[in-house]
Specification:
Blueprint (H helix, E strand, L loop, with lengths): L1 H6 L4 H13 L6 H21 L3 H48 L4 H11 L3 H14 L4 H11 L3 H16 L4 H51 L1
């Protein structure tokens, strides 16, 4: 029922894309409810702004901007933050997983052992893989499902290496360690960009404070 109603307003490709994003958030929301909520909130925002005296120009502009950009702030940006968290978790979890495999454990047992030692968001995702296999899924199917829940290329490349190791029995140390190195380099470059941007942010904040103080001073003299 919901599928047929939503298909009148949204393309199937767009709904499927939203479903994939929801998976990468690690949550279980109904995409149709999210799409409906965005429309309802946009309408309510328009009515509220109109009733507040913002007029027929500002009110629709703000409502339209919310409708088109809400997905970025509430979904896309959260996916990015989750990707950064999972990459940080991978630096702790994946080396232990490799060590467990080097000690003779098969992939499933290595995942189970590593997930018991380290407790973070990524290890809990890998625990889900073990639960899926216990419910009758093959390890390949469980790993593929895991890759759909993980945003970002680095960890997904590692999962792909695990799938290949499970099917072919090949060593994955080199390929996985390469991805860990790329994550480290990405984090270092990200921190460098933040440090470079701090002086500019301070300068802009100082300018904004100066303008606010100047406006307050002008208004004070005007009223007195």
């Amino acid at each position: 029922m919901k599928d047929s109603i939503a298909s009148r307003f949204y393309e199937k490709k767009r709904i499927d894309k939203l479903k994939a994003k929801i998976k990468m958030l690690g949550i279980n929301y109904d995409p149709y409810i999210l799409l409906g909520a965005k429309v309802i909130i946009s309408i309510c925002l328009f009515v509220f702004l109109l009733a507040s005296g913002c007029g027929f120009i500002i009110s629709p502009i703000v409502a339209i901007l919310f409708y088109f950009f809400a997905g970025y702030f509430f979904i896309d940006f959260r996916i990015y933050l989750r990707m950064r968290r999972l990459e940080r978790d991978a630096l702790d979890y994946i080396p232990l997983l490799l060590l467990s495999m080097e000690n003779g454990r098969n992939i499933k047992n290595a995942i189970a052992a590593s997930s018991e030692v380290i407790d973070n968001e990524l290890s809990r995702e890998f625990k889900t893989v073990i639960k899926d296999t216990e419910m009758g899924r093959s390890l390949d199917e469980a790993l593929k499902e895991l890759s759909e829940r993980i945003p970002g290329n680095y960890i997904n490349n590692m999962i792909l290496s695990l799938e290949e190791a499970n099917r072919l029995g090949v060593s994955i140390n080199d390929s996985v360690n390469r991805q860990l190195t790329l994550i480290n380099e990405s984090r270092i470059n990200f921190e460098k960009r933040i440090l470079k941007g701090i002086p500019l942010h301070i300068a802009l904040l100082s300018l904004l404070c100066f303008i606010i103080m100047l406006v307050v001073l002008v208004l004070y003299k005007w009223w007195t």
